[in-house]
Amino acid sequence: MQDEPHDDEAPVPFDPAPVAALLGGTTVGVAVFDTGLNYLYVNPALERINGIPAAAHLGRTPAEILPELDEHKDLMLLVLADGKPRETTVRGRTWVASPLDQRYWHSAYHRLETAGRVQGLVAIVLDITDHVRQQQELERARSHLALLDTAAVRIGTTLDMDTTCRELADFVVPALADIAAVEIFPPDIGHEVRRAAPGVLRLHRAALSAVPELAEPVQQFGHPGEYIDYQEDAGVARCLAANQAVVENRDDDAESADGFDGPLLTAGFRAAYRAFGLRGVAFVPLVARGRALGALNLVRAGKSPAFTDEDMFVARELAGRAAVDLDHARRYAHEHGVALELQRSLLSEPWGPHPHVEIATRYLPAEHGVLVGGDWFDVVPLRDGRHLKAMGDVMGHGVEAAVAMSHYRSLLRLLAGDDLPPHLILERLDTMVERSGLDRAATCLLAVVDRFGENCEVASAGHLPPVFIDPGKAGRVVRVPVGPPLGTGFGGYRTASVRCGPGTVLFMYTDGLVERRGEDIDVSVGRLAELTLPVGGRLEDLLDAVLDRFGDGAEDDIAVLASRIREGALPGR
């Protein structure tokens, strides 16, 4: 058998009749080529695949019929040369009218021989567009499901609204868009926002994300933290008004922003088109519990495809899930703000100044994302120039803890007027709280300094021990007897007497100052023995140093109080 026709012998004329009789009725496309790769025969099925009559094929090469086939010319020549069948998949567009951008067909090439002579090629063509598209849709569905699964662990990781918005914007770029902005309605509490003009929608841009090549040009259209005004016919305004996603895709053949429909054609939109080469924009409402919180704005640019129905399904799912997280964050922010304001009002400077006592206090809320606690302190004047110092911590967090703290503080001030020793005050306070039905237990440390006797009486209800700092010396952590927390009804408190000489500082604190994850509380408290204050040192400086050293990384609120007898307040001065 010879691999190539002899130049001195005329090729056997091709008779299409037998081929047509055998393959004319098959649903698979069949073509016969001569050794120059010109069509000799095309069956009706291939006519339908290519969208050109069989007669229009004859005498022409595949590339003349479909330019996409030119890249397979070398493959066809190899089959002619060595006789080994080969297969390939072709992607492109045929002459068949179709809404599809791409069609796919699988081709197998076999060398045609007659009487030992190479006559040409036979191509068997199968249209696999539907199969490929089904596989693509299945892969997209899997990708979208994976995207939604991943979103569950990457969006809403904190109770901070801005963080959640950034997580959402960063997540959808580039998975779903080239540019994403998350814009929300201004908060109900906090600083006031200037009023928008009638007919104008004002939103707070909480997050903005873009693919690297668009990160710089996108900055000209606003930054996170700014308030953005929209006219009522803008896409985001229509989205929020109807509580439905709004999608605008550019026409395939459009060369300018005019490929988008009317309401988007503003000066700013045209500028954005020039900057990015917009392909499509989408606005998706962020809705939770029937209330719109804002919108997720998506942009596709350059060579990115337009938004499809599947894309918008994923976008709506992501927006819905993120809206729930944002709603939780907004409700937390509202409660946190109310509780913080309540606590700050109750922790205003203790009862009026007294000429014999110097006092300094600090309150440091926990890092954002942690509900405000029930930390409190107070200084109540007693008879004979004495003062009752109190430091307490109501169990729990939030508004309820802050309200419970106010009850404890009020009851304590009431009992302090009876001039009882600290342990009896705790006994009566415990009984009153139990009978009042208040369901929040609290720890409490009481101390009364006798400025004449250089003595301090201390009683504890489950609270951490006080620290006494003598001038120019290291602190003393005094382990006084500890009774049960208030509100339990168990009682059993005791008063301890501690030496407290001239200039000695009494330092009291809540557990937020010393509690650290993974560290024994006794080790943390023991570290307070390192506190010092030079002779004549300021209490304010002491508290600043304490918070600078121990306040970073605190997971709970911190309240601290430092007090000492003023110079000249002791006998003989």
If you had to describe this structure to a student in words, what would you say it looks like?
It is a single chain. The longest helix has 38 residues, at 309-346. The protein is α+β, with helices and mostly antiparallel strands and 573 residues long. It has helices at residues 16-23, 44-50, 54-57, 62-65, 73-82, 129-154, 161-172, 235-242, 267-276, 309-346, 399-416, 422-436, 521-526, 539-550; strands at 29-34, 39-42, 86-92, 103-114, 117-127, 179-184, 200-210, 227-231, 246-249, 278-288, 291-301, 357-364, 373-381, 387-397, 442-450, 455-461, 467-469, 475-477, 482-483, 495-499, 505-509, 558-565. Strands 8-7-6-11-10-9 form a six-stranded antiparallel beta sheet. Strands 13, 14, 15, 16, 19 and 20 form a six-stranded mixed beta sheet that branches. The chain has a five-stranded antiparallel beta sheet with strand order 2-1-5-4-3, with helices on both faces. Mean pLDDT is 83; it is low at 1-7 and 257-267. Helix 6 runs parallel beside helix 10 (309-346). 31% of the residues lie in helices and 28% in strands. Strand 13 (373-381) and strand 14 (387-397) form a beta hairpin.
